[in-house]
Structure formats: C-alpha cells, structure tokens
Amino acid sequence: MTIASALRQIQDRKLILPAIQREYVWKPSQIIRVFDSVMRGYPVGSFLSWKVMPETVSQFKFYGFMTEYSAFDNRHNPVIDIPTDREVVAILDGQQRLTSLNIGLRGTYAYKNHGGWANKSWSYPERRLHLNLASEAPENELGLKYHFQFLTKKDVDASADDDSKKWLPVSEIFDAPDTAKLIQLLAKHEVGNDPKASALVSKLWEAVHKTASLHFYEEDDQDIERVLDIFVRVNSGGTVLSYSDLLLSIATAQWEGDARAAVHGLVDVLNQTGNGFNFSRDTILKSGLMIADVGDIGFKVKNFTTANMSKLEADWDGMSKSLQIAVGLLSDFGLSDGSLTADSVLIPVAYYVHHRGLDHSYRQSPKSRE
C-alpha cells in the first residue's frame, strides 16, 4: 500500500485505532527520521492490523489518528463512533509510524519553544513539516541526508532571503494526487527549471503516491483475549510497554466507561493543581491499585485481572477525589513539580486520605492543622 492510500483511509476513518492502543509519543526528531527514510527508499517497517467485523465493532471503543498534535492541549486521540454496519481495520502495531506520516503530510505538531512557559498556550506554536529544496541536511549525528524541519509560518518568512533555504510544506505533496497537480506544485514554488529542487519534490511525491512501501499483515480473529495477547506481544518488541500502557490497554477493554478518558482527565486535573505538577499515568494508576487494596502493585500480568479492573472502576470517583485532596495537600505544603523529588510520595498520602474518608475541608480545618 502507498503512504497516500493509507492516509486517505485514515481520513475516511476506515483505518482506526483500537482503545487498547497507547497514545502517540513520538518527538519531532523521530518524525523527521521517518521522512528521511522514506525519501531514501528505506523500508519503514511492516504493520499489523485487525479486521473488525460489523458484529464486533459495537463491542469496543475506537480512536482516530492524531492529525493536529499539541504538547500543550491536544495530546489525546479523538474518540470516534463507528457505524456498526461496516467492517473497519484497526492498527495493532505501527501506530507511531502511521501517525507520524499523518502529521507530517496532513497536520501539525505544536511543541514548546525553548525556554517558554510550560503553562502558556503561546509557548506552543503550530508547526508544519517542511522540506528544504535548496540544500541537504546540515551535518548531524543521526546520518540524516534530507533537510526536513518543523517550522512556524514566522520561521518560513524569516528565511525568505536565505539562499540556502527554500521551504516546501510537505502537506502540499499529499494534496497533489496526480502528475498534473505535481507540475502545478513545481510551478507554484518556481522550481520547475531547477533540476535539483524539482528532483527533490518529485522524489518525495513518488515516495508518497507511487511506491507501495507500507506492508500490512491482517488478523481477523474477533476474540478480544487473542487480540490483547497479540497486542502485548508485538508492542513489547519496540518501545517497551510501560506499566500504565498495559494497564490502560486492559482497563479500556474491560471497563464499562471510558478508562482512557477517565485516567487522562484525572492526570490533567492533578497536574494543574497549584504551581503545577508532572505526575505520570503510572503513578496515578499505581495509586489507584494501592487505594483499592490490591495486594501487589508490581508490573505483573497477574495484577491485570478482570476483578482488579472492576475494583478500580467501581471506586474510581472516590479514588479521584482522594488523589485530588492529596495533591492539594502537597501544594499546600509548598510543593510543585520543581520541588517534589519523588512522585511516589503521592501514593501513601492518597492512601491515608482515602482510608480516613477525608474531604477538602481537611486541608483548611484548624483542628487538623497539626
């Protein structure tokens, strides 16, 4: 399958993500490496997909691919409703690469400016992937040949008089599906008579629209237990599944509600307390298992049972309240992300708050001052 074909399927929501998938975690430098590989004709790997039949679609939650990623306020995949009268294809392995291609060719990536305020939206300007048609990549340790870079409109405008930089928005390659559009694109950027620049544009266009570089292996079993087993096996070979990745994957498949939305929403609320914290999903989920009195909170598959997930979901509201009070206490004590040396401090504090049945009044009550 060509890259363009895959992205059109993402666009039409025929290619989606099962809720057991972790979220998008790649950095801009990783996206650039993928596009450099695409330009050089290197294989970008195979993909494992799951054909979900109409009768199975309604039993699971699904998410769309990230297109407009923002490290400030858009890090979570959008939940999508899938019609139950048609089959869909869900990606079990290869999400990070496909999302990177999707962002590079169709979307944007907003990351924090160096030295910018972490809690201010203007520190995260929208950036699009560009290819420099005037020169190859500067000398680098990654061995990159082609000069791809995420740029704001301001960045592009600032380099207008620099002869060593002529930036092509990579998204315009995707928007040129045939040779007639390619010729128009070359004319638009005034590189039709520049052999080197036009060769670069044509090379990227061929790689996106003509080369069948994506190879999919399809699983059609509709048993969630088998699908979970496949997911854990294939994903543990790449970026190792974290504690929260696996727990969220299984919880999302077993909870009545939306486990992913519940956990991410709580993490966001906790981290916005006071002067700000940076608690991870791992810490929050471990706190939840501790509060639920699961005897062992270690990273072991035996802890991810239906019974433990039921405990976690049944008391989620109470746990969330206790965690918010615990983080409020840490903030009252003058702590924040910069001064809290170990996130695990939260766990015993939240456990204490929960099992004493304390509420927010505990933080202000004179009788509890000591």
Report on this model:
The model has no long low-confidence stretch (mean pLDDT 87). It is built from 16 helices and eleven strands. α1 packs across α4 and α2 (28-39) crosses α4. With 370 residues, the chain is of the alpha/beta class. The longest helix has 17 residues, at 316-332. The strands form two sheets. It has a six-stranded mixed beta sheet with strand order 5-3-1-6-2-11. It has helices spanning 3-11, 28-39, 54-57, 95-106, 153-158, 171-174, 179-188, 195-209, 224-235, 243-254, 259-271, 281-291, 306-314, 316-332, 346-355, 361-364; strands spanning 15-18, 46-52, 62-63, 68-70, 79-80, 88-93, 108-110, 126-132, 148-151, 167-169, 215-219.
Q: What features would you highlight for this structure?
A:
about 375 residues, alpha/beta, six-stranded mixed beta sheet, five-stranded mixed beta sheet, 16 helices, about 10% strand, globular
Write the layout of secondary structure elements.
Elements: H1 3-11, E1 15-18, H2 28-39, E2 46-52, H3 54-57, E3 62-63, E4 68-70, E5 79-80, E6 88-93, H4 95-106, E7 108-110, E8 126-132, E9 148-151, H5 153-158, E10 167-169, H6 171-174, H7 179-188, H8 195-209, E11 215-219, H9 224-235, H10 243-254, H11 259-271, H12 281-291, H13 306-314, H14 316-332, H15 346-355, H16 361-364
Parallel strand pairs: 1-6, 2-11, 4-7
Antiparallel strand pairs: 1-3, 2-6, 3-5, 7-8, 8-9, 8-10
Helix pairs in contact: 1-4, 2-4, 10-12, 12-14, 12-15, 14-15
